[in-house]
Design a protein that fits this description.
The chain is mainly β and 379 residues long. 8% of the residues lie in helices and 44% in strands. It is built from five helices and 27 strands. The chain has helices at residues 121-124, 163-168, 256-262, 264-269, 306-311; strands at 2-5, 18-28, 38-43, 47-52, 57-61, 67-72, 85-92, 95-100, 105-109, 115-120, 129-131, 137-143, 146-155, 170-176, 182-187, 206-210, 213-218, 221-227, 234-237, 273-277, 282-284, 287-295, 319-325, 334-338, 346-349, 355-361, 366-374. The strands form six sheets. A five-stranded antiparallel β-sheet has the order 1-2-27-26-25, with no helix packed on it. A hairpin with a 3-residue loop joins strand 3 and strand 4. It is globular, with a radius of gyration of 21 Å. The relative contact order is 0.13. The model is unreliable at 1-13 (pLDDT under 50).
Length: 379
């Protein structure tokens, strides 16, 4: 089955076409829960670990989508009551981390998804930081019997509505789960649009950790940044694509209620969101590629409110697939394609370079993963 990623903007020639084929479709068994905010990760390209954000459920499937086990961590089940799951991190089949969104509870699960250990990362550090709005476990390493976890995190010194926050805050924390010792690193890059605009709610990057390098992509900053630990230097991959390059936010200090009432459509829907990235880098022979999906701006009129968007199906986002060669010298060329309407993002790239796109039919409570091969000859 051959499909085309066709360019969607006007004129059509602004985007190249990229053929790809669907290798297989995995149908996810779903009998007990209706996943709300369903997401997944893979372990060794075989086991699929999925999680339901709203119901705080973790699922384990085989490579065909057959449910092997599940466990819920809410409403007193397992003697815990998590609000929302922020994400999973797979160390091995018998060690799976699950992090609560916003409140800092961290669970370590075994191969049957039973709790092996638990921590509250805020209490460990005497509440010296927040886990970022995009709750993420970036990396885990165990050295000399010392369990070290790296989390997306921000400083508590200033409010996220204050300009000083973006001038001084760190963006990640490395925490020893045994001793509580921690250190922070990374700051908002000088080129970042977050130093000049307030976006209310999408202040933090999403990371991919690859061979000692942290790649960071922000929602409303089209550029890509790479960091290494113990250094204030970073590398900038300047975005040169066809989408808007200068996101517009609001003034610092604006009340969040005022923002939602008067500016949410302008900021969240009338410009592009660059934060939909996968869990890993695409490695092909001697090259590395960073790939992300972008929610394209709708360009709605001022008369359209958030309630209008939520209550109608007429407002449909288009999603753009972007590729940049990480070994290419500046200026960096970003290649862009339109994703078929069935897809919003891919969640995983396996060792063979195949992409895992999730799609679903909410009415039928059907959840599918398409495993896709791209024609990469033109990369």
């Amino acid at each position: 089955m051959i499909l085309l990623l066709a360019g969607c903007s006007t004129p059509k020639a602004e985007f190249e076409d990229l053929p790809f084929s669907i290798v297989k479709t995995i149908k996810i068994e779903n009998e007990q829960f209706t996943p709300s905010g369903f997401d997944f990760e893979l372990f060794n390209d075989s086991l699929i670990y999925a999680y339901d954000i709203m119901n705080a459920v973790v699922f384990k499937y085989d490579s065909q989508g057959k449910l092997l086990s599940s466990n819920r961590f809410q409403k007193g089940i397992n003697e815990v009551n998590l609000t929302y799951l922020g994400g999973l991190y797979l160390v091995n089949e018998d060690s799976v981390f699950a992090l609560e969104m916003g409140l800092g509870n961290l669970l370590l699960l075994d191969s049957d998804l039973k709790i092996k250990n638990s921590w509250n990362v805020y209490r460990l550090t005497e509440e010296q930081f927040y886990t970022a709005s995009k709750t993420q476990i970036i990396n885990f390493e165990a050295t000399d019997d010392q369990p070290i976890i790296t989390l997306s995190a921000t400083s508590k010194k200033y409010s996220s509505s204050q300009k000083e926050h973006y001038e001084t805050s760190f963006l990640a924390i490395k925490l020893n789960l045994k001793t509580g010792e921690s250190r922070t690193f990374f700051k908002y890059p000088q080129e970042s649009s977050y130093r000049n605009n307030l976006f209310w709610g999408d202040e933090d990057p999403y990371y991919i950790f690859d061979n000692g390098v942290y790649y960071a992509s922000f929602s409303f900053d089209p550029n890509l940044y790479s960091f290494i630990e113990d250094s204030e230097e970073y590398r900038l991959y300047t975005y040169d694509g066809k989408l808007n390059k200068k996101p517009t936010g609001v003034q610092f200090g604006m009340n969040q209620a005022d923002f939602i009432r008067d500016h949410q459509v302008e900021v969240y829907y009338n410009q592009n969101d660059f934060n939909l990235i996968s869990k890993n880098i695409l490695n092909l022979s001697d090259r590395k590629y960073f790939i992300r999906a972008v929610r394209k701006a709708m360009k709605l009129g001022e008369q359209v409110g958030v309630s209008d968007i939520m209550l109608t199906n007429n407002f449909v986002h288009e999603y753009i697939f972007q590729i940049v060669d990480l070994y290419q010298k500046s200026p960096h060329v970003w290649k862009e394609y339109l994703l078929p309407k069935e897809y919003k993002n891919f969640s995983y790239i396996d060792q063979e370079g195949r992409f895992y796109f999730k799609r679903g039919n909410m009415d039928a409570e059907e959840y599918l993963i398409d495993v896709v091969e791209l024609d990469v000859d033109g990369l």
